[in-house]
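Internal QA ticket QA-208
Title: Verify multi-chain structure generation after dependency bump
Assignee: T.L.

Test input:
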Amino acid sequence: MWAGNPNMLYLNELGSNDQRSADRGREAIDTRGAGTYDSAGFGAFPLADRRTILDAEQMRRVVRRMAGEVLERNGGTAGLLLVGIRTRGVPLAESLAAQIGEMEGGEAIPLGVLDINLYRDDLSTVANYPVVKESRLPGTIDDQIVVLCDDVLFTGRTIRAALDALIDYGRPSSVRLAVLIDRGLRELPIQPDIVGQRVETTHDESVEVRFLEVDGEDGVDVTTVAPVADAPKTEGE
Amino acid sequence: MTEQEGWSRKDLLGIAELEPREIEIILDTAESFREVSARPIKKVPTLRGKTVVNLFFEPSTRTRSSFEIAQKRLSADGLNFSASSSALTKGESLVDTALNLQAMQPDLIVIRHAYPGAPQMLARRLEAGVINAGDGAHEHPTQALLDAFTIRQRKGKLAGLKVAIIGDIEHSRVVRSNIHLLTKMGAEVTVAGPRTMMPLAVEKLGAKVAYTLEDAIADTDVIMMLRIQLERQSKLLFPSTREYFRLFGLTNARLAAAKEDAIIMHPGPMNRGVEIASEVADGERSVILEQVSNGVAVRMAVLYLLSGAHREAA
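Actual output:
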């Protein structure tokens, strides 16, 4: 790692932010008009372009509960390896690891980081290839129980890529999926094992997850991405 | 949508036209690819279905195999043409060869040619992205990039460093690319070598000139030794290799004049006992083999970035 300065890395990660959320934005724009607000059950929604799903306090409780579920399903910490998918799966994995460690009396839970960009299924169609960041897995993943962590589960394509990436590192005894938000609208047959919160959304919307470590605060909002007529520009464009 | 901080060039022809920002994109991307070579399964599916033609009109072992390995690790299909074994020796013009290759729809062409500007000419005529793997004494951009990557890895930065490059400055494409790159990134370059191998007005490239090895390496962070091209000896640029070694060969005794933590680089292939003594080449400060490993990561990064950018033009 040339960037001896950890802040540097941190900034890079922030800067790269979100190829993936940018894509979500693009998809949303492409399919503009396909979904209606009513179909999602938010009758009065078109007027509000941001709603809060979890505030900081709720988010902490949800993550804590998820940590408990990881432990429970796994029957302890033996062979457990948490792997965060860049970018915002990483702080989720870190939070889960910290919580699990705390619950188990200060035990250090192994952590990994996965960048899925080299395994994306849309490389032949995107205009500019995404910025690739390093993947980092501690030691072998053979015979480990890998819990893939991501902030938002949407189409399932990220997870498909993550599974391919993971398998190139070895043969885990099992792989589970933990996501903070499941926003539905799957395009592949992929389901999470541990979910923080399920939210019904439309393609016009974007789920914004913020982590204290990366964004300065915890919280989850849903915003409308597709501009209605002359609405102000959003990040997703 | 390209104004974002991504890579947008179809070709990599030289360092001269790159912006510091672009150099950083390549080096950062290479950082990520380095990890792929450390895995048990050294392959990612990223460039599956892409075809890369390696067109080497000049002999090359290191650069060509480095490009080939990079292609294999990215799952691209590589196709090799070398001067000795193909129509390249049958009198076909470069343009005709290239147009014939183009007709087979490659995505990228890696070219090494004795004539400066050959890659530029191909880039203008072909839809495929072109990577310059060395054109005459002009540029060798991936070598400079892997050198910079290695320096950055060892020193943590490029800006503010002092780099000495010693040897045949005039005939070296490696020097030209390195001077461009290092000065763009804020490093200070001093070149040294026999006067017969020093181009006129080398200062215009932004490098300082020293005429003795000692002057060049005093106080530098990086010492880059260049290969003396013995095949050029017929031009009598120096009286004998022994004399060259006596004046410009890097030995442990000479190294005493340099900083304690100075690193030693060489683009290969080395002539031991001509420009560099074995004790230095194999010594603790030598990063020569790291350069070779890093070359694969840097070339993976270049192949990846150009494949992505090229798509847009198609």
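Spot checks passed. The first strand of chain A starts at residue 50 and ends at 54.
Status: verified.
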